[in-house]
Amino acid sequence: MSLQGDLSSPQNYPLYIRSVPTENELKFHYTVHTSLDVVDEKISAMGKALVDQRELYLGLLYPTEDYKVYGYVTNSKVKFVMVVDSSNTALRDNEIRSMFRKLHNSYTDIMCNPSITRGQDPFQAFDTMVNSMMMQVC
Amino acid sequence: MTPPTHWDFPVELCCRPMAFVTLTGLDVVYNAVHRAVWDAFCANRRADRVPISFKVLPGDHEYPKCRTKRTSYEWYIPKGILKTGWMNKHLNLVPALVVVFYELDWDEPQWKEKQLECATRVEIVRQSLQGRNTKVAVVLIQKKTPLPPGEDVIASERAAALCNACDLSGKSLFVLPHTDHLVGYIIRLENAFYEHAQTYYYTEIRRVKSHKEFLNKTTHQLLFVRHQFKIAFFSELKQDTQNALKNYRTAYNLVHELRAHETNILEIKTMAGFINYKICRLCFQHNTPLDAIAQFRKHIDLCKKKIGSAELAFEHAAWMSKQFQAFGDLFDEAIKLGLTAIQTQNPGFYYQQAAYYAQERKQLASMLCNHDSSVTYPSPDPLETPTGVLDFYGQRPWRQGILSFDLSDPEKEKMGILSLQLKEKNVLHSELIITLLSNAVAQFKKYKCPRMKSHLMVQMGEEYYYAKDYAKALKLLDYVMCEYRSEGWWTLLTSILTTALKCSYLMAQLKDYITYSLELLGRASTLKEDQKSRIEKNLIKVLMNESPDPEPDCDTAAVKASQKLWADRVSLAGSNIFTIEVQDFIPFVQCKAKFLAPSFHVDVPVQFDVYLRADCPHPIRFSKLCISFNNQDYNQYCVVEEAYQKSDILEQSSQGTMCLVPGKTRKFSFKFVAKTEDVGKKIEITSVDLILGSESGRLIARKVPNISVQLRHEPPALTNEMYCLIVTVESHEETVAKDVKLTAGLKPGQDANLTQKTQVTLHGTDACDDSFPALLPDIPVGDLQPGEKLEKPIYIRCGTVGARMFLFYISYLINTVVEGKEILCRCHRDETVTIDTVFPFDVAVKFVSTKLEHLDRVFADIPFLLMTDILSASPWPITIVTSQLQLSASMTPVDQLESYVGNVVLQTGESASECFCLRCPPVTNASGVATGCYVISWKRSSPVESVPVVNTIITLPHVIVESIPLHVNADLPSFGRVRESLPVRYHLQNKTNLVQDVEVSVEPSDAFMFSGLKQIRLRILPGMQQEMLYNFYPLMAGYQQLPSLHVNLMRFPNFTNQLLRRFIPTNIFVKVRL
Where is the Trafficking protein particle complex subunit 11 C-terminal domain (chain B) (predicted)? Predict the structure, then answer.
């Protein structure tokens, strides 16, 4: 079973990537990167709709042979991407959605934390949260 | 010979099945008529022609023999699912219909002989088709145009006779007159053939179906699939695609019900693949792409795990790859025929997956087929079969038709596997993978997936690298690198760079090698320290003209070849100067250049610092640092050079100025004297040549001007006034300031509208118009002696309110001495000032009735008042010189229009009002009548007489004019006295063209007694008026309510007393009696 969490900025550079297990990490990086195509497309499609009422959760971006890729985008266009093993049937849409929400909350907490100084890795706290989340599902 | 690969789809599977009809008796080589007939059949077959495949055969052609009909299936054990020849047989060998062409006219003199010959020909064909249901038809080629049916008696007689002789039904005999309308006849003929063919395939389907009842589930499992497939295939030939699809689906399910074992899994998969292909193809044809996709997914899920023999696992990967590729092809074909695909569901994904399986195949093959070179291909070849072809699809050539799951001959099996493995070894995997990847790239490009495209191109590049085509690999990788760089995916970039570095090493591409090394050593690279260290050492080797160490994990043979290349290159010393632009990536030295001040005066040297910091693991030393400027004359002043021994390059020495220690920032300071010709220009560092590029720009300023500029004015400016601004220039220079010039006006670069609405002039006495410029450039002022002061008034007119920036720019020439050199300097000083413009006053206009009540509309012919109110908003006192009401034609004044506000001085917040009595004649225009304009002439209050007067024109609002049927006005004194008679005269005026009945009544009031008509009904003629006289007798003092007059109009029920109140007074002041 494998699971991958990723956080990507409005300019699409990666802020945080983590994958379990760690082998074949490069492939996951590519999967996440390519999934941004779909995210971009979805965002631009949504841009035409009402911006305020839009749903942050983008749903299943596209299914690959072995993985499912889910996306989530915040109002400030920070993207969250999750890659889940296709065989993992325990993770339904609702679970994924709530996981994203958790990630988002945690991310906002970090960004709002005034005590993080320059040079300090802001994603340490995030890491703990992601770890515990991955523990639960894997 | 076995087919090239047993997972390739045979052509007969992939083509569109069409009814097969053979034409006999045509001599297409020597007979021009026959040739023309044949051409009409086969040339130019467009989509609207019936789907038949025609073939010309000789009359005595031997068709495949029909096997004797099985009467019982009881002892029959099938040897496989589908014979390899079966589809081809029914597509190209066994016709649905044989047509016998025969030249015979109805009036043929030797009819009997000819008829006999024809019957013989038909008989020969029948003989050859023994046992088959194939239809036979006869076409008579005739020279004469036939008469309409029924008219030619001989024809119908002879036709019946011929049918009889040939044992044909009347429907199978056709006549083809060889006339001008050949194609038309042919089309009619082939439509008839098509019907016959459909009947044939229908009977074939029935025949196959009839076998079903003899089958049993245990021994005939294979036959269930075979029959189902055949039914579906015949349905396709019959062009009944709906039923074909249905039957293929059943067949597909049956295939998966078969007992699978390692020995027959290939056969099952092959058949499943075939049937799946057919289903998907038909789904796309029926325009149900989602069904096709669903079927394909199901197929893949079912077959993914059916790997079969572990030693031949690469076969499974190849098969999977083929499945995806075929589906991608089908999908793509459907799109070309009009289907629309989307970003997340397009053929690209299938090609990509096909490529992925092809890669897996390559991996498995390299693992399973790494036989020693001593292993030779087995002899006799286990892949040879006696007939040269396989009997059944998907079977092993060395054990055809054996259904047992046990391997009867393990040795033979081993040899078979070995031969397959050895064959696989020779497959050019990379080529297959690259083709699939480039297919996928083309698709993703179409469906807006730039990142997916890049990813696939990286894979292609890597595949070229494995295929040892390093040049192509490098080209692809280099192309996509910037995309990853710009999006900051450093992990991915590092991986790409690593491959690119290997390629450049193996090709001994010096410049590329250095470029990639630089980037891999940089901060952005995610390589481990030891790797970076290795790369840095290699880089230094290259810089010292030595061959670098090979990159890890490279093909040994390629490394050998490249070492030779490197050696050659090293010997060609001298051509090794490369300029590498590092603007676009993050190299291993960070560089920052900084001028010490934003601008430098020409008499002070320009100073700047360059900071360098290395990110590589080892200290590195440069021989030279030089800075280039946009003015290249300065370059010579900014060079740091240091000679050192070759061996020192990695030595850590704190003395060496040019040695960069990792993580430490080193500062280099430079200074130079700027040239006077660069005064006012930008000096730009265009590049820092080390390895790094960076840009920054700074301005060289002029000498400090030694004059002062003062502005005297009274802001804010008022709209449209001639705003006076006095500029005072005082020279503090020690010598004469020559050629002093003043530029004054609106600072350029603001809103374009401001330029239109701002005028500047030197002459304030007369108002300027729009033609005046917004900026007065270079007004010559003359020379300024040291200490001399100069005043210059500037007048500005601002047409709109808002803030404006004004520029006052004094320039002059002066002689000055710098470091012993005398230079003539043009100095300048500028002063900007922001001036707000405000309205001098607000004008409020309102319409009131003669009773001073507010009116939202006026009544025709009834006088009303126009009141204007000028409220000063200016912080400075203003003088209203005069005012003037300019009425429009539709308004007439009741009395003289003279200004009451002439020469009034208004302080801030004070207001001046005046009022004009007007009348408006009746109009038809309901939307409103223009009133006119109000012109106010004013100026800023000032003791100076010369201040020009400004005329401000205010357009008065439109007013709605309404007509009323009756106008009442009252004549009464301005006050009354208690117990003194108060005569009141009411005038009732009919404003309509009708005679009006008027009811007038007066309601008593407590404060008055009165005499006069209390209630009366009267008539007023059009345009006439009636007077009513009353004597009121006030009883109480004070502001008393008058007895109220009520008027009721019979014709105008809308005329209310409310309206009346507007015209007549309701109250009067009653004084006490003296």
Answer: 989-1047
List CB contacts (< 8 A) between B300 and chain A: 65
For residue B380, is the peptide bond before it cis, meaning its omega torsion is within 30 degrees of 0? Answer: yes
Residue with tokens 């980037």: B519
Q: Domains in chain A, ordered, with CATH?
A: 3-137 (3.30.450.70)
Provide, rounded to the nearest whole percent, the portion of chain A with pLDDT above 70. Answer: 82
> In this predicted structure, what is the pLDDT of residue B823?
67
Higher pLDDT: A7 or B224? It is: B224
Nearest CB partner across the interface for A34, out of B353, B455, B495: B455
If you search the block for the tokens 């690119």, which residue do you land on? B500
Mutant choice from A7, A29, A34 vs B, greatest count of B C-beta within 10 A: A34
**Residue B811, SS3 per DSSP:** strand
How many CB atoms are located within 10 Å of the residue A12 CB?
Answer: 17
Interface list for B 370-389 with A (CB within 8 A)? none
pLDDT in tens, B330-355: 999 999 998 888 888 889 999 999 99
Q: What are the pLDDT digits (tens) for B181-190?
A: 888 888 888 8
Q: pLDDT tens digits for B194-212?
A: 999 999 999 999 988 888 8
Flag whether residue B526 sits within 8 Å of chain A, measured between CB atoms: no
ipTM: 0.90
Task: Provide φ and ψ at B111, rounded to 5°.
Answer: -60, -45
Q: In whole angstroms, give the CA distance from residue B585 to residue B524.
A: 9
Residue A47 has pLDDT above 70, yes or no: no
Instruction: Answer whether B281's CB lies under 8 Å from B327's CB.
Output: no
**B242-301 residues touching A, CB cutoff 8 A:** 300
Per-residue 3-state assignment (H helix, E strand, C coil) for B719-750? CCCEEEEEEEEEECCCCCEEEEEEEEEECCCC
Q: By CB neighbour count within 10 A (0-12 exposed, 13-18 middle, 19+ buried), where does A19 fall?
A: buried
Residue A5's pLDDT band, with cuts at 50, 70 and 90, is: low
**Has residue B551 got a pLDDT over 70?**
yes
Inter-chain contact B489–A61, Cβ cutoff 8 Å?
Answer: no
Residue A62 in contact with partner chain B when CB distance is under 8 A:
yes
